[in-house]
Amino acid sequence: MLLKKQTLGEFIIENQASFKYTSGELSRLINSIRLAAKVVNHEVNKAGLVDIIGTAGDTNIQGEDQQKLDVYANDKFIQTLTNRNIVCGIASEEEDDFVAINSQDENNQNKYVVLIDPLDGSSNIDVNVSVGTIFSIYRRVTPLGTPVTIEDFLQKGNQQVAAGYVVYGTSTMLVYTTGHGVNGFTLNPAIGTFYLSHPNMQFPEDGKIYSVNEGNYIHFPQGVKDYIKYCQMEEGDRPYTSRYIGSLVSDFHRNMIKGGIYMYPKHSKNSNGKLRLLYECNPMAFLAEQANGKASNGHTRIMDIEPTELHQRVPFFCGSKNMVEKVEEFIQKHE
Ligand code: P6P
């Protein structure tokens, strides 16, 4: 059976021609992410056995305790992408500033920059709940052979050339898009190969699952409160089901398969919400739109937001198109 399934490597080669910048570099980039994902997956799966759980003592720019696996995953992805000499820069949730790769080498003809959340949901690690890696890929906008600048990273989400995530769950999956739909690959750990298990993934236009941290309810804008009450009302196909794992990648993945909406609104404690535009919201928004879903900040398409800083946060509503449009309706009614 396995021999009938297409591997990720075969899929990349077969679809390389469809990518307008056919140079093989993006394929090599996806392949290096595949390798790093396997290495991180191995550590995530044995985290309970080896002393790499618990905070690394440091805190990242977000002021969050850095779990050792966060640090490990960050190092592995940066190391893998650097060693293959494919990218000219990397920005990461775990790095205060972007990391220039071989930027002193004027022969550095690498065209791509990668923005990454190496281990999203890491607070779930030591309670054995799934976590994920999120990545976003752009072509640099500054001249080849010159040092990469912040301008290469502060690009609108609608300029992404590829985006995806790895979900380290009951099975490990790599889900990504290069602008030609969304495809999911499941890792067979016995042989270390990703197989195409979910071709052409699509958000159902409607869903019955809403994902939000209702512990923040009293701090939400009135429109969001009204939408949550709408989800809970006995009417038509409602009440909906509330499912919130505390891991964006897992909630997104389930909602894409079953239909649903993920929400991280602004609230009085976080005036722009918690999620970061560049390496969480933009890549997930690219995937959502490629899968017939939608992603906004309640007013504006996420991928049209002009970034101003590397770690900026935005309110985030993402998932089944009709559900996102419904919460936008409630929000806009109050503003
Ligand atoms: P809260 C994980 O830290 C994360 O960025 C997302 O993966 C997750 O959905 C959210 O934050 C959880 O945040 O405030 O509800 O615990």
UniProtKB/TrEMBL annotation:
Pfam families: FBPase, FBPase_C. Its cofactor is Mg(2+). Residues 204-331 form the Fructose-1-6-bisphosphatase class 1 C-terminal domain. Signal peptide: none annotated. Substrate binds at residues 120-123, 213, 244, 274. Its EC number is 3.1.3.11. It is found in: Cytoplasm. Mg(2+) 2 binds at residues 117, 120, 280. It catalyses: beta-D-fructose 1,6-bisphosphate + H2O = beta-D-fructose 6-phosphate + phosphate. One of its GO terms (cellular component) is cytosol. One of its GO terms (biological process) is fructose metabolic process. Residues 7-199 form the Fructose-1-6-bisphosphatase class I N-terminal domain. Its main location: cytoplasm. Mg(2+) 1 binds at residues 93, 117, 119. The keyword Nucleotidyltransferase does not apply. Pathway: Carbohydrate biosynthesis; Calvin cycle. It comes from the Bacteria. The keyword Iron does not apply. Belongs to the FBPase class 1 family. Homotetramer. This is Fructose-1,6-bisphosphatase class 1.
